[in-house]
UniProtKB/TrEMBL annotation:
One of its GO terms (molecular function) is ATP binding. This is ABC transporter ATP-binding protein. PANTHER family: METAL TRANSPORT SYSTEM ATP-BINDING PROTEIN TM_0124-RELATED (PTHR42734). The keyword Metal-binding does not apply. InterPro entries: AAA+_ATPase, ABC_transporter-like_ATP-bd, ABC_transpr_CbiO/EcfA_su, Metal_Ion_Import_ABC, P-loop_NTPase. CDD domains: ABC_cobalt_CbiO_domain1. Residues 5-245 form the ABC transporter domain. It comes from the Bacteria. It holds the Pfam family ABC_tran. The lineage of its organism: Bacteria, Bacillati, Bacillota, Bacilli, Bacillales. Gene3D superfamilies: P-loop containing nucleotide triphosphate hydrolases (3.40.50.300).
């Protein structure tokens, strides 16, 4: 079985600051991972390495069979879909584009559609819209969509290039509970279709749906725990990562947390930050 991602003793140092320290992590076929950690824990830097936009200071990295230092990184990136709320900066460019044109643009890795399209491109976009229950949005301009519809459009856009790895970086930011659950249902569909492997970054434990198999927990650039979610999502690991007294319970095969804290605990955490 070929590893989807493999990191051996990976560290990232900027100036005198250690961003990531001696990470050993492996993602294998048929695994879908969630990455947890506070802001500043190293999640973004980890993603930048996976996508080839950041080289580690030391250590070995292999992504989708591509060994860093021996591969063409732009070609690697064509096999990786990436969706983040950071893409909202392109709002003005996307505003008047139709939903299907934005989805098709994913084939060309462009913001906006400037290439000549084929009938098969339109057909594939329609299939993705059907998968995400977005048929009623055909022909609609991007700036008329709700936040949830925009997020699903961008995920469909990422899938247009048929990536082997899809990275979803806090995709639920700004969504209400109903819209978040609709988004999670769409992710269930992606996993069920076996289209690609997923890395899902979030702050919210309850977003870890049944189909997500493994969890990586980061704190201050170090791995606290990684592995099957049932083994990682325990009180001890989450309390250490989030610096609070946390207990985990499982309902309908999803984890939920309760926070037990005293005023002095929060005061101590605030002072550390």
């Amino acid at each position: 079985m070929e590893a989807i991602i493999q990191m051996n003793n990976v560290s990232l140092i900027k100036g005198n600051r250690v961003i990531l320290k001696e990470l050993n992590w492996e993602v294998n076929e048929k695994e879908h991972w969630v990455i947890l950690g506070l802001n500043g824990s190293g999640k973004t830097s980890l993603l930048n390495i996976v996508t080839g936009y950041q080289y580690p200071t030391k250590g070995e990295v292999t992504v989708l069979g591509n060994v860093f230092g021996k591969t063409n990184l732009p070609n690697l990136r064509k096999q990786i879909g990436f969706v983040s709320s950071a893409l909202d900066v392109f709002q003005s460019t996307l505003a008047s584009e139709s939903v299907e044109d934005i989805i098709i643009s994913g084939k060309f890795a462009s913001i906006g559609l400037y290439e000549k399209t084929m009938d098969e491109d339109r057909k594939q976009a329609e299939q993705l819209m059907h998968m995400f229950r977005m048929n009623h949005l055909q022909g609609k301009a991007y700036d008329t969509l709700s936040q949830g519809e925009k997020r699903k459009t961008l995920i469909a856009r990422a899938l247009m290039a048929q990536p082997k790895l899809l990275i979803l970086d806090e995709p639920s930011v700004g969504l209400d509970i109903l819209t978040r659950e609709e988004l999670l249902w769409s992710i269930k569909e992606i996993i069920a279709s076996q289209r690609c492997h997923i890395l899902y970054v979030t702050h919210y434990i309850e977003e870890i749906i049944e189909e997500m198999t493994h969890v990586l927990v980061l704190k201050e650039g170090k791995i606290i725990a990684s592995g099957k979610k049932e083994e990682v999502l325990i009180d001890q690991h989450l309390s250490e990562a989030f610096q609070l007294d946390i207990s985990v319970r499982w309902e309908n095969k999803r984890p939920w947390v309760s926070i037990h804290h005293k005023a002095e605990t929060l005061h101590s955490s605030y002072n550390k930050s």
